[in-house]
Design a protein that fits this description.
Blueprint lengths: L13 H60 L2 H21 L3 H11 L4 E11 L2 E10 L2 H13 L3 E11 L5 E9 L11
Antiparallel strand pairs: 1-2, 2-4, 3-4
């Protein structure tokens, strides 16, 4: 048996078909409106970015021209003088760098138990670092031993006790002066 629909209207429920086609049309219109809005927004942002880029490029061009003008106005002699002055300043800074830690490490390693360090005063003159120390010891021999140990490190040179006095308790206070040549300075260290 053969079944065919010979009716002039094949759908019995036309309302459902119209609703589905209408919903599909509304969705298409909504997506189209959203896409149009996004295109307009992105076009505005692109125009903004293009305007900013062109002003930045123009500003960069102006700055390059100013830099070229400044370079052209400087003569080679002036540049060499500035470089020489910078090297001289760096050399002075390197000479002026003073490591308190290194000084106190030397003193701590050489300080005998019978000697007490009261004061330390370095004086930096050009390439020479002079150190003056006030120490207290039970005997002059203890202070002399401290001086000998300082010079044995190689970091202290020409150490002398310039002033000595006896305290009320029988101990001795001495001022020890000499040159400090730390290993970190040019020409310093063991000599």
């Amino acid at each position: 048996m053969l079944r065919t629909n010979l009716s002039t209207r094949p759908f019995y429920n036309e309302r459902l078909v119209y609703v589905l086609v209408g919903l599909l049309g509304v969705l298409v219109v909504a997506f189209t409106a959203y896409n149009v809005q996004q295109v307009a927004s992105l076009s505005a942002r692109q125009a903004e970015a293009s305007a900013r880029a062109s002003t930045d490029e123009q500003q960069a061009r102006v700055l390059r021209q100013q830099a070229a003008t400044a370079r052209a106005s400087l003569r080679e002699e002036e540049l060499q003088q500035v470089a020489a002055r910078a090297q001289e300043a760096n050399a002075l800074i390197d000479r002026r760098v003073f490591s308190w830690s290194e000084l106190f490490n030397h003193l701590e390693r050489t300080l005998p138990a019978d000697v007490m360090l009261i004061a330390v005063r370095p004086q930096i003159d050009a390439d020479v670092v002079k150190v003056a120390m006030v120490v207290m010891g039970r005997t002059i021999a203890d202070i002399d031993g401290f001086i000998a140990q300082l010079e044995a490190t190689g970091a202290f040179k020409d150490m002398l006790s310039t002033q000595e006095q006896v305290e009320d308790d029988g101990s001795f206070r001495a001022t020890v002066e000499g040159r400090y040549v730390p290993a970190s300075t040019p020409g310093g260290g063991q000599q």
